[in-house]
Amino acid sequence: MLGCSDLTVAYGDIVALHGVTLQVRAGETVALIGANGAGKTTLLQTISGLNKVRGGHISFDGSPLDSLSCERRVRLGIAHAPEGRRIFPGLTVEENLVLATSPWRPPGGRYGDEIAQVFELFPRLKERRRQLGWSLSGGEQQMLAIGRALMARPRLLLLDEPSLGLAPRLAEEVYERVGRIRRSGLTILVVEQNTVLALAVADRGYVLETGRVVLEGAAAELKRDPRVREAYLGR
Amino acid sequence: MADFIQLLMNGLALGSVYALAAIGFVIVYSATGVVNFAAGQFVMLGTFAGVATLVNGGWSLPAGYLGALAAMALFGALFYAVVYLPLRNSPAVTMIIGTVAIGITLQNAALLGFGSWPFRLVSPFEGMTVDIAGAVVPVHAIAVVVTTAVLIGLLWLLFNRTTLGIAMRAVAQDLVAARLMGLKVGALLAFTWILAAVLAGVAGLMLGPMWFADVNMGDPIALKAFAATIIGGFGSLPGAIAGGLFVGLTEVLGAAYVSSAYKDLIAFGAMILFLLLRPQGVFGERIQDRG
Ligand SMILES: Nc1ncnc2c1ncn2[C@@H]1O[C@H](COP(=O)(O)OP(=O)(O)O)[C@@H](O)[C@H]1O
Ligand SMILES: [Mg+2]
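Predict the joint structure of the above. Result:
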């Protein structure tokens, strides 16, 4: 479904991705793990169209994405819950959610089914739907960020460190929901420093180190891999 | 008392014009981060768009107003394409210099096109007055206050009840997240500039009959609108409204009761006091909106 081949991305002189090749097949959940600064966020932003590609290609459903704007990519079904959540702080929970339907919803069109599904997955958001974004707790903001991405009717969900800054119990709760989204059949690419959580939910994984893929394989294999155990699982 | 009511209405009318100019300034600032130093010249341009259609063109009132506002909308779109887009990734100072340069260009273009002799833009309510508790109040002043109140109500509806307005607020709060949500960020920013230009156009058309249409009128308006946003709170819409009314009222009441030479002292004195003591203004900046 998603293919990145030999992708190189740079910020001025700093090369953040050195020829990254990676695939996400339809229905799969793929984890991309790596330390801080490895280039995980850069990769997701490049898939979404926020960063310019210096070399290589990205394709989605077999057609090239390279020349498409962010907006066009969202329309194709690529939804992104970014690092740091980035929910709209001065909009209510409901406004945040409804806004994310604009790529597919005609003026005055309905969004009842979509919002009902998000509220079913995250009942807390329903309770807080009239509250402004900034007043939510970190865990609620993460749920809103994921819920907002789901409102876009995505076919590929990009999640950037959904556990970041959350207490362990909350991070597990968020990942439990990611597991449910996965079981609903949605294709997911999740980026994490929290290797345990990410590999537990994923089918396959890639390990990124300073902008290069150094390891890839089935999630179960990666969990057993001595290099992963030493560098990312701390044992 | 009768004098006071008359001054109050004139002050509110002038304050309404400042408030509209300040609102245009604030919505551009919140959405794009641009401090538009040409905001006063936008209002001047609105007045002269009215001079062009109503005085020089001899159009009927509705056609003249609509034509002038359409020209202002076009001007806002042009400003977006020619000034904002090329400079949007430049340092803030470059953008500021850009708006200053455009302001000076507009002023000189108006001088070339219309000359330095002031025009008189007539009001639809020319010469009409009403009696309020013994005070003789020009109908134009009431119409200005009412028009402004209606516009503020419409703006409130836009920003709180329509997807377009909520999307504009989202763009103002987090541009990157707005792009990731698939919002048409370019079109929304262009619309923000168009809206600001049209509001300045309305302000200019309403101000024309209160002042003379003079090519140098933009500078004092810019200063008053700027003072209004500082007093009300930089970036705050309610602040722009309250600040605009305050500046207009103190200007008119100050001229009558203090001294016409020092009529601006209260507003600018208040602005300086706010800068020193409460830089976030009366309403503060809604920090939660800015992320
Ligand atoms: N906007 C930017 N400008 C310059 N360098 C950046 C920018 N964003 C990220 N980088 C650099 O790119 C590299 C990868 O960063 P990032 O993709 O954020 O990593 P990760 O998400 O894995 O922590 C880092 O060296 C970082 O310093
Ligand atoms: Mg990151």
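The first strand of chain A starts at residue 2 and ends at 11.
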